[in-house]
């Protein structure tokens, strides 16, 4: 069987599961959205009004009918109407998605690069003083809860020192060109730093242990035996240690997306996390469903990308994959 | 540290006099003897919140972690033991659970199902079980292959019984480390959720305190010092503590990684040279060389001289110290290995007196090596041309280096269209050719080949040996070849040394040593060689075992196995003494018995 077909098949199943879950969860919850949105006629809401509300949110008819219309809307890219903002969920999400991408993307890149560098530096000489100090330093940083880091950074750099704006992603006043970019950059620094610090640990741990296991490999010995200096030897170990790390930094992405919710709340950053959180607090169920399905799809896409990317990085797997396709 | 936190949680009522969730003073009070950490915006005592908060935080963390670990373990045992489709399905679910941004999931679920502490705990378990499940499963798979587990299975022990008796207890260290990790994540997520205002509204936890602090704009007043910092620091301490405990358990769970990793052996540069006259006809002159391995002497005062223009063979069974000798000379001893004394002259340079950096500058240029384990010596992620080019670049600029690397590969018999291949695409013999190309790329003076043909089939062995011989002549290399295989060495080497238990016990011109072996060990080795002209006979193993290098006696180390051993052999050790020779090459033997009777005993 073709390896790619199998991977895609598996992911299709996962997507289907996520879509069904997104449909089922609010309907399963006791005292959930339906009672909240359209309480049974009790005087405050008439039966007619209730029908209207149900119709507006596609909650009429049998569960089967609801599912069909849910699927139809989903395929057409229609995620319903936000209660809070009274406009299509797609629009509301669209306003935020770039900010989220900017914040999480920056954090993923910086924390991966930093985590790999530190992890390799520590793992190269396992048990050395350098290893011990980097390891304990990173573990301590990793233990800091995101909101605590965020609050402290906010406190020190924004409130006390006044270096960075306290909240928001972009200032309200009109700015043009470079000034605007600078403003966005300044407002990105603290949230991105927080998220980076929080995401650093998982990349570091994997990078370190990958490096440790590579240093014992025969080809590293050979590199030394054939006369390369330590820099050249390390280059060999690094190339190989990067393989397992690439997997983890992509998987860490989904954790960071979650943590971004907290960071965005602390810094009032207009990303998807704080949007989802606002939806939770105001019980804006269509919006919540929209955010959830988006997160789920992104997480799945990242996993898929990882599965497809890995063989391209490792010539051994690449070979095995192509010979499998030939047969 | 953790104990203090637990103590605070248990004794919360005793050490705080105020209720944590009701106003007991003025809002925004500063710390005082009445309110140790002041009060929040509603006048609630913050010290009380801190110690009471510890309760919920710890309780949720522990309960969630315990349940998640139990579920994870069960899934791992079932998946790992049953295998097949059960395994496949369970692992897909695990992957899915792992890839969900679970903080988002918990937020969403909390909004659907309510925000009580119990709901949060259940949700936490729902996402936390997957990680232990995955790691434990691979451990179970490994354990299944263990001999005693298979044996128990074959003897008909019931599966649950095997799992509990033989598998579960081996999982304990990993299980504990996973439990601790799960607890840390649970605490972190629980306080994150509470911080967002979705914690249990009826109970106090560190997260809720921080939630009120964030909403009460604590950062804008001085209240942050006693409002935000204490719960934040407490949380951090708790998680750091858990992380370090987890790390300790991980080290216990996987002692295997301790043995990994190469660290340069301690290298002491000798300052004062022994002023010994140098014989210019020698390519490599090793004198009184000793190597220790974790305090055990594995090479004991070895003398060895490679004459220019002649191939030198070093023979010994595995564990005789021949590779340690080579690695010691090259400065490539692994962690724990250490050169204790001696000298190794390459021309006029004593390699022992070079620092690590200067010695590494000799390797690959003047002194080259073909290490053991050639199958895995090449970097799997790099094309072979690039790897040979790395060698040629040591002495040439990039352009020339590439041309020379191409020539070198072609010279060792790798056709041009394969130069872009990765190592796994080549056969064992081809890989060995690549290693040879790298070794001789810079025309070294001396090539040390450590078991260059081990693991290859007989025909490939002959080809590789022929290639080495051709290169030797072309590049005028001097070769020190090391092997456990006496017939192989006999076929290629002009001179030979035989090592036993860290010492050279006999040396001389190969033809002479083979014709008239003097040391009893050599005699037995020679007798065991298959010969074409003699009558066919089964190769007889030498009775007994090689001595344990950590248990040295005063006497000859071969005495316990020696057919000609006399009482004095177990009292004093013989030294390597010159012995009569016929040709130009000196002979030497280390044996009391032979010393006395130079009469040669011919076995054939």
Terminal CA distance of chain B reads 77 Å
Chain pair sharing the greatest interface: A-B, 84 and 79 residues
Helix content of chain A: over 70%
| Through-space gap between termini of chain A | 9 Å
**Low-confidence segments of chain A, ≥5 residues, pLDDT <50?**
320-327
Number of helices of chain B: 23
Percent of residues in helices of chain B: 40-55%
**Mean of residue pLDDT values of chain B:** 77
Number of helices of chain A: 13
Order of strands across the biggest sheet of chain B? 6-7-8-3-9-10-12-11
Shape of chain B: elongated
Structural class of chain B: alpha/beta
What's the gyration radius of chain A in Å? Answer: 25 Å
Assign the structural class of chain A, choosing from mainly alpha, mainly beta, alpha/beta, alpha+beta, or little secondary structure.
mainly alpha
User: What overall form of chain A do the CA principal axes indicate?
Assistant: globular
Using DSSP, what is the number of strands of chain A?
Answer: 0
Average pLDDT rating of chain A: 76
In sequence order, what are the helices and strands of chain A, one letter per element?
HHHHHHHHHHHHH
Walk me through what this model shows:
The complex is a heterodimer of chains A (about 325) and B (about 600). Chain A has helices at about 5-30, 35, 45-55, 65-75, 90-125, 130-145, 145-160, 175-215, 220-225, 230-265, 270-280, 285-315, 315-325. Chain A is mainly alpha-helical. Chain A is globular and about 85 Å long. The termini of chain A are close together. Chain B has 23 helices and twelve strands. Chain B has helices at about 1-10, 10-15, 45-80, 85-100, 100-115, 115-130, 130-145, 145-155, 160-200, 205-215, 225, 230-255, 255-260, 320-330, 355-360, 385-390, 400-410, 430-440, 460-475, 485-490, 510-515, 520-530, 590-595; strands at about 280-295, 295-305, 310-315, 335-345, 350, 365-370, 445-450, 480-485, 495-500, 505-510, 575-580, 585-590. Chain B has an eight-stranded mixed β-sheet with strand order 6-7-8-3-9-10-12-11, sandwiched between helices. A four-stranded antiparallel β-sheet of chain B has the order 2-1-4-5, with helices on one face. In chain B, strand 11 (about 575-580) and strand 12 (about 585-590) form a beta hairpin. The termini of chain B are far apart. Residues about 255-260 and about 600-604 of chain B have low confidence and may be disordered. Classes of the chains: A mainly alpha (about 325), B alpha/beta (about 600). Chains A and B meet through helix 1, helix 6, helix 7, helix 8 and helix 9 of A and helix 4, helix 5, helix 9, helix 10 and helix 12 of B.
């Amino acid at each position: 069987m073709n390896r790619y077909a199998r991977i895609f098949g598996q992911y299709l199943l996962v997507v289907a599961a996520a879509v069904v879950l997104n449909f089922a969860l609010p309907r399963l919850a006791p005292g959930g959205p339906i009672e909240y949105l359209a309480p049974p006629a009790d005087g405050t809401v008439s039966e007619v009004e209730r029908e209207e509300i149900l119709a507006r949110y596609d909650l009429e008819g049998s569960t089967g009918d609801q599912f069909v219309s849910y699927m139809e809307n989903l395929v057409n890219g229609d995620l319903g109407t936000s209660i809070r903002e009274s406009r299509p969920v797609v629009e509301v999400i669209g306003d935020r998605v770039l900010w989220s991408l900017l914040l999480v993307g920056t954090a993923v890149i910086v924390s991966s690069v930093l985590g790999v560098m530190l992890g390799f530096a520590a793992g190269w000489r396992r048990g050395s003083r350098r290893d011990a100090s980097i390891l304990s330093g990173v573990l301590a940083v990793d233990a800091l809860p995101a909101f605590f880091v965020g609050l402290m950074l906010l406190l020190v750099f924004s409130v006390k020192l006044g270096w960075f704006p306290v909240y928001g992603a972009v200032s309200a006043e009109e700015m043009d060109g470079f000034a605007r970019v600078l403003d966005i950059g300044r407002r990105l620094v603290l949230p991105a730093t927080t998220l980076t610090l929080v995401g650093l640990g998982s990349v570091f741990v994997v990078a370190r242990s990958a490096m440790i296991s590579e240093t014992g490999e025969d080809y590293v010995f050979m590199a030394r035996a054939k006369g390369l200096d330590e820099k050249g030897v390390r280059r060999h170990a690094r190339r190989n240690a990067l393989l397992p790390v690439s997997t983890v930094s992509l998987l860490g992405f989904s954790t960071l997306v979650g943590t971004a919710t907290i960071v965005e709340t602390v810094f009032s950053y207009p990303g998807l996390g704080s949007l989802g959180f606002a939806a939770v607090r105001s019980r804006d169920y269509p919006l919540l469903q929209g955010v959830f399905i988006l997160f789920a799809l992104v997480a799945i896409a990242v996993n898929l990308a990882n599965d497809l990317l890995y063989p391209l990085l490792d010539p051994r797997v690449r070979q095995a994959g192509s010979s499998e396709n030939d047969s | 540290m953790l104990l203090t936190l637990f103590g605070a949680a248990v004794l919360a009522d005793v050490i705080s006099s105020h209720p944590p969730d009701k106003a007991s003073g003025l809002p925004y009070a500063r710390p005082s003897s009445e309110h140790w950490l002041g009060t929040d915006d509603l006048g609630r005592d913050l010290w009380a919140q801190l110690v009471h908060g510890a309760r919920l935080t710890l309780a949720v963390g522990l309960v969630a972690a315990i349940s998640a670990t139990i579920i994870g373990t069960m899934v791992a045992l079932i998946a790992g033991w049953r295998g097949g489709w059960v395994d496949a399905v369970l692992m897909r679910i695990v992957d899915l659970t792992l890839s969900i941004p679970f903080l988002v999931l918990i937020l969403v679920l909390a909004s659907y199902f309510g925000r009580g502490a119990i709901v949060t705990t259940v949700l936490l378990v729902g996402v936390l079980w997957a990680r232990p499940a995955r790691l434990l499963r691979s451990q179970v798979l490994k354990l299944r292959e263990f001999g005693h587990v298979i044996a128990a299975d074959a003897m008909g022990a019931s599966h649950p019984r095997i799992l509990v008796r033989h598998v579960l207890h081996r999982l304990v260290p990993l299980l504990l480390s996973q439990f601790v990790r799960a607890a840390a994540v649970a605490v972190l997520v629980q306080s994150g959720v509470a911080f967002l205002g979705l914690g249990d509204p009826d109970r106090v936890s560190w997260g809720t305190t921080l939630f009120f602090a964030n909403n009460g704009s604590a950062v804008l007043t001085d209240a942050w010092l006693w409002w935000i910092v204490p719960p934040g620091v407490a949380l951090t301490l708790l998680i750091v503590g858990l992380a370090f405990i987890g790390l300790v358990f991980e080290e216990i769970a996987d002692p295997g990684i301790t043995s990994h990793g190469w660290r340069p052996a301690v290298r002491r540069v000798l300052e004062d040279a022994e002023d010994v006259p140098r014989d210019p006809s020698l390519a490599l002159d090793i004198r009184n060389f000793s190597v220790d391995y974790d305090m055990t002497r594995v090479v004991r005062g070895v003398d060895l001289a490679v004459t220019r223009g002649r191939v030198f063979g070093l023979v010994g069974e595995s564990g005789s110290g021949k590779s340690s000798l080579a690695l010691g000379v090259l400065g490539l001893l692994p962690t724990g290995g250490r050169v204790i004394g001696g000298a190794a002259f390459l021309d006029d340079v004593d390699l022992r007196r070079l620092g690590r950096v200067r010695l590494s500058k000799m390797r690959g240029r003047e002194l080259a090596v073909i290490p053991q384990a050639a199958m895995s010596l090449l970097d799997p992620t790099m094309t072979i041309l690039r790897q040979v080019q790395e060698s040629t670049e040591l002495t040439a600029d990039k352009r020339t280096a590439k041309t020379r690397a191409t020539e070198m590969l072609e010279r060792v018999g790798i056709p041009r269209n394969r130069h872009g291949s990765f190592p796994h695409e080549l056969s064992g013999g081809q890989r060995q050719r690549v290693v040879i190309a790298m070794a001789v790329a810079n025309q070294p003076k001396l090539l040390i080949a450590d078991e260059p043909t081990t693991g290859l089939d007989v025909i490939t062995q002959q080809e590789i040996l022929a290639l080495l011989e051709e290169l030797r002549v072309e590049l005028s290399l001097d070769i020190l070849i090391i092997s456990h295989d006496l017939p192989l060495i006999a076929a290629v080497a002009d001179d030979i040394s035989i090592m036993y238990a860290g010492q050279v016990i006999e040396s001389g011109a190969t033809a002479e040593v083979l014709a008239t072996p003097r040391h009893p060990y050599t005699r037995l080795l020679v007798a065991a060689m298959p010969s074409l002209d003699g009558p066919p006979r089964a190769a007889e193993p030498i009775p007994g075992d090689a001595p344990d290098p950590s248990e040295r006696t005063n006497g000859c180390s071969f005495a316990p196995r020696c057919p000609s051993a006399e009482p004095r052999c177990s009292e004093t050790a013989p030294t390597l003494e010159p012995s009569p020779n016929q040709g130009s090459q000196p002979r030497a033997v280390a044996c009391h018995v032979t010393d006395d009777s130079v009469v040669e005993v011919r076995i054939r």
